[in-house]
């Protein structure tokens, strides 16, 4: 009797698709509650005090977003692109390992997003009230520029966090440096992220697969950047009495394996 070939192209393709769906659902589990809270609390503001209260609340709701984005990138790279480990295990490993540093930046981004939404609404309302076109144009351009810079930082920080170990401040500095030095790839990554977000807003069922698919596509330009800063760990020395070095250094270098 012939045995079933689990290595054929069709089966591997279906297996990868299922893995992408699982990773997307895991991400949704942490991201969508924060998304709905943002929709509720970032919609309208009655005063600056109201803005600050809602910004802080959205920041708290955005705490899971950072770790979830980091875990999704880590899992997509390791388990889907590199075929190392299981997606669920990899996701929760990365989530636990990077939770604090991802949560800090996720909360900060939530506060910043709320203030940006408020600023755009304020500028638009002022324009409708007094037709101050020049002031509207200047304020709109400044706010849009800040939004783009924040987006360029965000698309670089979470992959950097998934790959490197350092303090949150140093990882943030490294992300800013990489985003600025590789501005072309950074804009490609931002475009992929924005298109996927808008696609989910338009077609909500895409939330069940698009987050991981977009991350998979996004990982190709991102790895062109990260790969420049990753070095292979030095081989471990052999025990005394043996010459040369050992190839087994006890470190899983999946991220630089072909």
Task: Tell me what you see in this structure.
- This protein has 258 residues and is mostly helical.
- It has one domain (10-226).
- The protein has helices at 9-41, 48-61, 65-81, 87-97, 99-130, 133-163, 168-181, 183-202, 210-226.
- The longest helix has 33 residues, at 9-41.
- The two termini are 36 Å apart.
- 29% of the residues are buried.
- Residues 241-248 have low confidence and may be disordered.
Which descriptors apply to this entry?
mainly alpha; single chain
What layout of secondary structure does this protein have?
Elements: H1 9-41, H2 48-61, H3 65-81, H4 87-97, H5 99-130, H6 133-163, H7 168-181, H8 183-202, H9 210-226
Helix pairs in contact: 1-2, 1-3, 1-9, 2-5, 3-4, 3-5, 3-6, 3-9, 5-6, 6-7, 6-8, 8-9
Low-confidence runs of at least 5 consecutive residues: 241-248
Count of distinct strands: 0
Mind telling me the C-alpha Rg?
A: 22 Å
Range of strand content? under 5%
Global morphology: globular
How many helices? The count is 9
Terminal Cα span: 36 Å
| SSE-based structural type | mainly alpha
Percent range of helical residues: over 70%
Largest sheet: none
Structural domains: how many: 1
Taken in chain order, the helices and strands follow as: HHHHHHHHH
**What value does the average pLDDT take?**
82
